[in-house]
UniProtKB/TrEMBL annotation:
Gene3D superfamilies: Multidrug efflux transporter AcrB pore domain, Multidrug efflux transporter AcrB transmembrane domain. It comes from marine sediment metagenome. This is Cation efflux system protein CzcA. The chain crosses the membrane at residues 20-41. Keywords: Membrane, Transmembrane, Transmembrane helix.
Amino acid sequence: MDINSDLPKPEGLFERIIQFSIQNAIWVLLFVCTWIAVGVYSYQKLPIDAVPDITNTQVQINT
């Protein structure tokens, strides 16, 4: 029993992407894990001033 014989022929782009992802689950999982690792690595290499400062703004007035 072949998995391809049970699935109908995909008609649209999203159906083809989904069917490809199901048939190649290992490669898709490897691709996603690679991009997660690249994202974590890039996040750790960001300069410190690239992270926004979310503290309250304080103004000091000297008279």
